[in-house]
Structure formats: structure tokens, C-alpha cells
């Protein structure tokens, strides 16, 4: 039981970063980015390239992957979303599914369909307080918690963090307070791309890399963000942890391959019962 | 060559029906259905499994239409009070869940092995050499029926109110139209058409397995609607018979060149579909055919 | 040199023209309230001044610099401190963060840093002193107006532009707010205000301007306008009677 909860929390942490990225772009740009899964895949494969082809050690390759993810996200924004500025959220939504298809198939074209793995040494799992903890879980735990703490500090205590929250809160007022929208949007996309890429690497470590990996995570990532209230980035993290544990506990009654069905059921219930999310009440709208 | 052409045209007819379904849901009603491929899959499996179990093809197809329509309406209920972003993910979630279910519940669906031996309608009555042509004719008749019905719907009060809810749900609500009920019917009717598309898919291949159904089907339908012009059934028809024909045709054409392997070709094609979707949204957001309007264009411009 | 100099403004929405050649100036340490009946073009004038609407004709100068072609963010950075009528605070952020955001994206015109400006604002609005940690969305309407005004004043703007500050406030809160506005005017910040409530609006400033049907009908010291029975009868309505 405790083992299940622990595994669930680690699964939740894997979902947390892209869910946070999704909620971040939604809160600032007011559209749901369906390419979040494809961004995750691109980042994971970029890190794979740095790791196996260039021979960089994995931590460095991960940073490279995050930089590549950020660049791709910013580039896509310039090429696609900025040009669609002023269109409805639904149009951007449809555009993002086109982006998802394009990105995923760039990866497939270059790297092929077969699963890949990072060049890392296998380590024996640890035993701690009766818990079986493997090396990938420890990596995930430390990496995600450290990044989340960093993001929290960024949002709370830095100038650019305040600017992002201000644009999310009230874009018109942000403009008359001298905050340039364009710069904030660029930072939001860079951050979102980097977070998705890091999650991609961690998921690739946990299982394998394949071009479909991001698409498989799209549903849980959206569920987590909706659980958190879709417009509040930090609440998406809490949503991800709740979902991770729920998915893991559900394996006691459902086959493990039905994780995504669990995510869908959780989403359906939350939308029917409390569409503002578990923690959405705190977001004050005009 | 004729065989290729007939096979491709059958695929085009099926994709165009899916496009028309999406045009009713999204084009007219503003209801984003990213899970479109799931409803096609549901239609195909309902029709295929019932048929293999001994139901006559047309009866199995009727059942598939009913099941898919009802399933669509039910799925749309989950988020019908919320904005369109939510219906998009809910429909996608349904589609992914259905694909998992069909892939693993082998007692019912034979899982990844797939369902072989699906009988086409009228299969016993025609010589095998003409079977493909007869099936194509059947698919085209289905397409014509869907087009006619949806065109009548679009010009009816139902269609006009649906467009009004797309522009602004508040306005329609203020006019006393029950928006929820209206959207439910639109999504259900679109779903029924997807049931037709799914059934035709099953008849066309006479064998179905879970890998045949993926987001690409959704992307094709969106392409048809966006290129054709949101809300215009005629536009979807034209787009289906040009763009989808080109894309499907390229499947056979590029095979001739030996530069890229099959997987790379498939990836390239899907990449182009994605790029095309985005490009049209940016440069030709209203598509190529105008939506039917009650108001005359001159009046509208003033 | 005047803080704000508006000359020959014609503006409107689409083809419909609302302002027909409006001229006005606000002196370096001056203050001006624009009053007039509903639909006279007050809001359009405010939007033209802060850069939300481009005029079809005319010039706008800020401290002598021509800003006619600049949008709202660029004018904000050149010293226009705008307080919109509605949605004028970041609701999900604390009062302190609101003030910080007012300060850090606009070059300050005074050498004192954030702490110094914050102190000056708390002198002006003592009510905010023990609310710095509260989310702005949880404040009362009057306090929210004060936060909005303080945020706009943080970088010591060349011109404070107030859009109907009394809107939605109870008479008591409106009274408190206009007392604070009078203190701001006193301190020497140039103020440009549009206001529905003529008695409050003219009572807090030096000069008044009556706008009717998109044209300047009268311009005089605020007290003189308030005292003129003809003006009151014709344009300012019954509410101007003390």
C-alpha cells in the first residue's frame, strides 16, 4: 500500500512538469496547447541525441534537451501562434494539434519508430523503510522537486515571474503598467518547452523513448491540469500528484495498461462535479 | 491502376463523410471533436463484430450508427456546460480509452489480432470482380445521403440556431433556445455520421484492428473542414475530393521512389498534414467556400 | 512646459467620430477634471490620452514630447500613470506585489528606490499599510481604487490619468478616495481625470473642463465652474447642487 502510494507520487511527479507547463501557457495565452505531448517527445529525443550521438553524460544531455525544447517551443510560437494572434482559443487549439502532428513526425522521420533508451548504467534498487525504490525514481524525485522549487521562487520573487503572473491575471492592465506582452510570452514558451523536455527525459529513463511517448501522456497531463483548475500552474502540480496516486491505486482493481482510462474517468468526474478544479476556487476572475 | 483508383476513391468517400460529420459538430456548432477517430473506431467495431456474429451487413451498420450517435451524445454531456477546450480533451480521452479497451479486451474484440472476415453489403449478389466497384458505389451513395441530410439540416432553423450558439452561446440562450439540448443533438447527429464512416471502413478493409485508428483520421477531417470553409458542406465535399485524394494518392505514388523507407514516408506524410493544417489556419482561415448564410453578402458588409 | 498638451483631437470608433477638435492642457503641477453629460465623449478622450485609441487627427504631447503615435505601454514608460475604471488591480496578487509591478517595469522619475516610493504611497494611503500582504481581489472597492492609484503613482509618473474614480463606490468611500486625490494634487503630481460626479471631481482639482457632444463647451477654474449657476443648470445636472 505504502509502496503503491510512493510509486504513485513518483508517477505524479513525471506528469507534474508538463501539467505545469500546460497550465502556464493556458493562464497566459488562454488556449490549451495540445502539442504539449509532442514537445515532451522532442525534448526527450534531443537529449537522446546529445547523450548517445554526441556522447555527453546524461545530466548535460538533459540540459541540452531542455534548451532544445525551449528553442523549439519559442520557434513554434513565432511561426504559428503569434501569427494566429487575435483568433479564438478554439482556432489555436486546432493549430496546436497540427503542431503536435508535425513535431511528432519530425521525430519519427529522423529517429524511426523503434523504442530507444538512454546510455545509463543499471543500478540495483534501494530498500528504505520497507520501500523498494529504484534509481530512476530517486532521480525523478530530486530533479522534479528541485525544478518545482525553482519555478516557485521564479514566480514569487523575480521580476519576470511577477510579469508572467500579471499578464495571466489581467493582460490589459499589464500593458498599461509597461509590461511588454511579447517578452513575457516568449519566456512562457521557453519555460514550457524546457519543462516538457525534462519530463520527457525522466519518462524515457523510467521506460523507453518512442515517438508516441508524448501522445500517451497527453491525457494524464490534461487531467492533472484540469484537476488543478487549468489556469493555476502550481495547482496543476498538486493535481498531478493526486492523479498519480489515483492511477497507481487503481492498478489493484484494473489492469495496469488501463492507466489512461483511469485518467479519463477522473477527468470526467471532475468536470461533472467541480469543473473549476479541486483547487480552482482561489483563482479570482474579473 | 483502376483497382488503385477505386480503392482510393472509397477511402476518400469515407474521409469525406467524417469531414461532413465534423463540419456539423465543429463547423456549424463550434464543438471541437479531437476524439473523432474514436467514434469512427466505435462504428467500425460495432458494425464489424455484429457482422461477424452473424448480423446482416446493413443491419449491423444501422446498429453501429445508433451506438455511435448515442455514445457521442453521452460523451458530449460530460462537458456540455463548459467551454470548447474541455470537449476537445474529453472526446480525445474517450477515444484513447476506447482504443485501450479494444486493444486489451480480447474476449470481446480479439484485441490486437483484429477482426477478420467482415462481409460487405450485397457481397453475395455481385460477381467478385465487380465487388470493389459496387462497394465504392455504396460508399458514394452513403456520402450523398449524409451530404443531403446535413445540407438540409444546415439550412433549417436547427442549423441556423446552431450557428448562433457557435458565435455566442449567450445570444441563443437569450432567444430562448435550449443550447444544451441543441449541442447534444448536433454532437449526436455528427456521431451517427461517424458511425456510417466507421461501418464503411470496416466493410472496405473487411478486417479491422486497433492500429488502423489514430489521430490521423481526426487530422484529415479537420483538414477537410478547414480547407473547405467552416460550415460549408459543399466546401468539405470539394476539399475531400481534392486534398484527401492527393494525400491518399501520394501513398501509392511515392512508393515508386526508393529513397525513403515506408516508416519515413508515413512520417513525412503526417508531418505535411500537420504543417498544412497550421498553414491554412494562418493564411486561409475561412477556407475556400463560403458558409451558407441567410443574409445576403451585400447586407452583411454594411 | 505642460505635463499634457492635447491639440485638435478628432477621434471615434470606426467611421463614427466622437471627439470633434478637442484642445486642452494640464500644467506641470496642474490638475484638470473633464465633466459632461453621458455620451459627451469623456471616455473616448481618456482612451486617446493614455494611448488605447489612435486619434484620426490632432497631436498629444507629454512633457513636450510628441507621443501621438505611441501605444499604451510605450506611453506608460514615458510617464503616463493610468488608472482604468474597472479591473484596475491584479486580483490574484498581493497589494505589495501590485505596487511592485507598478514600479518595476517603468523607469522611475525619482531617485528613491522601491522602499522609498512604497513609504511615500503609504503616507498618501495610510489605509493600505496593514493590507500589504492581502490579495488585491479580497479588498473592498474603495481600497482597490487606492491600490490601483498607488500602483500607478509608484514610478512617480509625469501625469496621473484617472478614469471615473468614483464609479461603483459608496458615497463614504468615494469621499475618502477624493480626499486622497486632493492630497495627490496638493503634492504636485499632474492629474488628468474624467468624472461623472461633478461635485467630487471638480472639488479635488484646480481646473475644470466641460465636454459636450465631443466639443469643449467651457474651461475655467474648478471652483468657478461649480459656482456658476448657468453651467450647473445646463450641463452639470441636479447632482451638482451641494
CA(first)-CA(last) distance of chain B: 53 Å
Q: Rg of chain C, please? A: 17 Å
Helix and strand sequence of chain B: HHHHHHHHHHHHH
Query: Tell me about the biggest sheet of chain B?
Result: none
- Counting helices, strands and paired strands, the structural category of chain B is mainly alpha
Number of separate structural domains of chain C: 1
Determine the most extensive contact between two protein chains. Answer: A-B, 45 and 45 residues
Widest sheet: strand ordering of chain C: 6-7-8-3-9-10
Through-space gap between termini of chain C: 35 Å
Q: Given the structure, what is the number of helices of chain C?
A: 9
Q: Beta-strand level of the residues of chain B, as a percent range?
A: under 5%
Q: Which oligomeric form is depicted?
A: heterotrimer
**Residue share in helix of chain C:** 25-40%
Features of the shown structure:
heterotrimer, A: 286 residues, mainly alpha, ABC transporter involved in vitamin B12 uptake, BtuC, two-stranded antiparallel ribbon, 2 strands, disordered C terminus, B: 302 residues, globular
Amino acid at each position: 500500500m505504502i509502496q503503491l502510494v510512493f510509486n504513485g507520487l513518483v508517477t505524479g511527479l513525471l506528469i507534474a512538469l508538463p501539467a505545469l507547463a500546460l497550465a502556464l501557457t493556458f493562464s497566459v495565452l488562454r488556449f490549451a496547447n495540445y502539442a504539449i505531448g509532442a514537445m515532451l517527445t522532442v525534448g526527450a529525443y534531443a537529449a537522446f541525441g546529445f547523450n548517445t550521438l554526441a556522447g555527453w553524460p546524461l545530466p548535460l544531455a538533459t540540459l541540452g534537451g531542455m534548451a532544445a525544447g525551449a528553442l523549439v517551443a519559442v520557434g513554434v510560437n513565432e511561426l504559428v501562434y503569434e501569427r494566429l494572434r487575435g483568433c479564438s482559443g478554439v482556432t489555436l487549439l486546432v493549430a496546436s494539434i497540427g503542431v503536435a502532428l508535425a513535431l511528432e513526425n519530425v521525430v519519427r522521420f529522423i529517429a524511426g519508430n523503434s523504442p530507444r533508451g538512454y546510455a545509463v548504467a543499471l543500478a540495483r534498487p534501494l530498500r528504505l523503510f520497507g520501500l523498494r525504490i529504484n534509481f530512476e525514481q530517486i532521480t525523478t524525485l530530486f530533479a522534479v522537486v528541485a525544478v518545482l522549487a525553482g519555478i516557485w521562487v521564479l514566480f514569487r520573487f523575480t521580476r519576470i515571474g511577477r510579469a508572467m503572473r500579471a499578464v495571466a491575471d489581467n493582460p490589459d492592465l499589464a500593458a498599461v503598467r509597461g509590461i511588454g506582452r511579447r517578452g513575457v510570452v516568449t519566456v512562457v514558451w521557453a519555460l514550457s518547452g524546457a519543462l516538457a523536455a525534462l519530463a520527457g527525459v525522466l519518462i524515457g529513463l523510467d521506460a523507453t523513448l518512442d515517438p508516441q511517448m508524448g501522445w500517451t501522456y497527453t491525457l494524464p497531463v490534461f487531467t492533472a491540469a484540469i484537476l488543478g483548475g487549468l489556469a493555476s500552474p502550481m495547482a496543476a502540480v498538486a493535481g498531478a500528484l493526486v492523479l498519480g496516486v489515483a492511477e497507481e491505486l487503481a492498478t489493484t482493481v484494473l489492469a495496469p495498461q488501463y492507466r489512461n482510462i483511469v485518467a479519463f474517468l477522473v477527468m470526467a468526474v471532475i468536470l461533472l462535479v467541480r469543473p473549476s478544479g479541486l483547487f480552482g476556487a482561489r483563482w479570482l476572475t474579473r | 491502376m483502376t483497382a488503385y483508383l477505386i480503392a482510393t476513391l472509397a477511402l476518400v468517400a469515407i474521409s469525406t463523410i467524417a469531414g461532413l460529420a465534423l463540419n456539423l459538430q465543429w463547423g456549424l456548432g463550434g464543438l471541437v471533436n479531437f476524439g473523432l477517430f474514436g467514434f469512427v473506431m466505435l462504428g467500425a467495431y460495432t458494425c464489424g463484430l455484429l457482422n461477424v456474429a452473424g448480423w446482416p451487413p446493413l443491419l449491423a451498420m444501422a446498429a453501429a450508427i445508433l451506438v455511435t450517435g448515442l455514445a457521442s451524445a453521452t460523451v458530449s454531456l460530460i462537458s456540455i456546460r463548459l467551454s470548447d477546450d474541455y470537449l476537445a480533451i474529453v472526446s480525445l480521452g474517450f477515444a484513447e480509452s476506447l482504443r485501450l479497451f479494444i486493444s486489451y479486451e480480447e474476449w470481446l474484440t480479439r484485441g490486437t489480432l483484429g477482426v477478420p472476415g467482415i462481409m460487405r453489403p450485397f457481397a453475395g449478389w455481385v460477381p467478385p470482380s465487380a465487388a470493389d466497384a459496387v462497394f465504392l458505389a455504396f460508399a458514394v451513395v452513403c456520402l450523398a445521403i449524409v451530404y443531403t441530410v446535413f445540407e438540409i439540416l444546415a439550412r433549417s432553423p436547427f442549423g441556423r440556431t446552431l450557428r448562433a450558439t457557435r458565435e455566442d452561446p449567450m445570444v441563443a440562450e437569450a432567444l430562448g433556445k435550449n443550447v444544451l439540448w441543441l449541442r447534444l443533438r448536433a454532437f449526436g447527429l455528427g456521431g451517427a455520421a461517424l458511425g456510417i464512416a466507421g461501418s464503411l471502413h470496416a466493410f472496405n478493409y473487411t478486417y479491422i484492428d486497433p492500429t488502423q485508428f489514430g489521430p490521423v483520421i481526426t487530422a484529415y477531417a479537420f483538414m477537410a473542414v478547414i480547407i473547405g470553409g467552416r460550415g460549408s458542406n459543399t466546401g468539405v465535399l470539394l476539399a475531400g475530393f481534392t486534398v484527401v485524394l492527393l494525400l491518399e494518392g501520394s501513398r501509392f505514388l511515392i512508393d515508386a521512389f526508393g529513397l525513403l523507407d515506408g516508416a519515413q514516408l508515413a512520417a513525412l506524410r503526417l508531418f505535411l498534414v500537420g504543417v498544412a493544417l497550421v498553414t491554412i489556419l494562418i493564411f486561409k482561415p475561412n477556407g475556400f467556400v463560403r458558409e451558407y448564410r441567410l443574409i445576403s453578402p451585400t447586407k452583411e458588409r454594411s | 512646459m505642460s505635463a499634457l498638451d492635447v491639440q485638435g483631437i478628432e477621434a471615434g470608433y470606426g467611421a463614427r467620430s466622437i471627439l470633434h477638435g478637442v484642445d486642452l492642457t494640464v500644467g506641470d503641477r496642474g490638475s484638470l477634471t473633464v465633466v459632461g453629460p453621458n455620451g459627451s465623449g469623456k471616455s473616448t478622450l481618456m482612451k486617446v490620452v493614455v494611448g488605447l485609441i489612435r486619434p484620426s487627427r490632432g497631436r498629444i504631447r507629454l512633457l513636450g514630447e510628441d507621443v501621438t503615435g505611441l501605444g499604451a505601454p510605450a506611453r506608460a514608460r514615458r510617464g503616463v500613470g493610468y488608472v482604468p475604471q474597472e479591473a484596475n488591480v491584479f486580483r490574484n496578487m498581493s497589494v505589495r506585489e501590485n505596487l511592485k509591478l507598478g514600479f518595476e517595469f517603468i523607469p522611475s522619475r525619482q531617485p528613491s528606490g522601491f522602499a522609498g516610493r512604497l513609504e511615500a504611497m503609504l503616507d498618501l494611503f495610510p489605509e493600505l499599510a496593514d493590507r500589504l500582504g492581502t490579495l488585491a481581489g479580497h479588498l473592498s472597492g474603495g481600497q482597490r481604487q487606492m491600490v490601483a492609484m498607488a500602483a500607478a503613482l509608484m514610478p512617480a509618473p509625469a501625469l496621473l490619468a484617472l478614469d471615473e474614480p468614483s464609479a461603483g463606490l459608496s458615497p463614504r468611500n468615494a469621499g475618502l478616495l477624493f480626499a486622497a486625490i486632493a492630497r495627490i494634487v496638493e503634492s504636485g503630481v499632474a492629474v488628468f481625470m474624467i468624472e461623472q460626479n461633478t461635485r467630487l471631481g471638480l472639488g479635488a482639482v484646480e481646473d475644470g473642463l466641460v465636454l459636450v457632444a465631443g466639443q469643449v463647451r467651457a474651461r475655467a477654474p474648478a471652483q468657478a465652474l461649480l459656482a456658476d449657476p448657468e453651467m450647473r443648470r445646463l450641463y452639470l445636472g441636479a447632482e451638482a447642487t451641494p
